[in-house]
Amino acid sequence: GGYVALSLWMVQYYVGEYGLDIRVAALLAACFSLPGGVLRAIGGALSDKYGAHKVTWWVMWVSWICLFLLSYPQTDFTVLTVDGPKVFHIGLNVYVFTALMAVLGVAWAFGKASVFKYISDDYPGNIGTISGIVGLAGGMGGFILPIMFGALMDWTGVRSSAFMLMYGVVWVSLIWMYWTEVRRTEVMGSNAAASPLAQTVK
């Protein structure tokens, strides 16, 4: 859902934030949306090889870093120096922004595949039903999130608030994954207690 929402939102963001022509904005927005379709099969292969959990866990962390940087709004601040006040600007230019969006698009391409690997691993008898529910949730997210992006921008006056919202969603997802999966994973494997070192310590 986040992928669909940002794909719809990006052209408007480029035009509003960087003042680009709509054709250039659409071309740059493809740097995010195109990998999501092209590289999805690679994400599936990685999920088959390393497991859905590992791929999704790293996708979440890459998303967390990218969205943290994308969330920071264009900022000007004034510092009083011995030579008088000086104004400094902090913000992403269009090139760095596009590069971060491309990385995020690749990560989410892998993540879309790992989600369906989860379904086959955890619900082998109900793949069709669960896939339909996941697809429904993604479709609803793609419909609702752009509306929320617009409402947040109107409320805060900050265009990057869309990324702040997605950053919060990724935070919640990371915490959820930690408590439901990572925390239950044995650090040394199931045979750790039977190892000679473990017996010696015991």
Structure characterization notes:
- The protein is mainly alpha-helical and 202 residues long.
- Helix content is 74%, strand content 7%.
- Helix 1 packs parallel to helix 6 (127-156), helix 3 packs across helix 5 and helix 4 runs antiparallel to helix 7.
Tell me roughly what share of residues is in helical segments: over 70%
Number of strands: 2
**Order of strands in the sheet with the most strands?**
1-2
Write down the secondary-structure element order: HHHHEEHHHH
pLDDT averaged residue by residue: 81
Report the total helices.
8
Main beta sheet strand tally, sense and closure? 2 strands, antiparallel
Beta content? 5-15%
| Cα distance spanning the termini | 50 Å
Could you say which overall geometry the principal axes of the C-alpha atoms support? Answer: elongated
Class by alpha and beta content: mainly alpha
Rg (C-alpha, Å) = 21 Å
Q: pLDDT below 50 for ≥5 consecutive residues: which ranges?
A: 187-202
Which keywords apply here?
202 residues; mainly alpha; two-stranded antiparallel ribbon; 2 strands; disordered C terminus
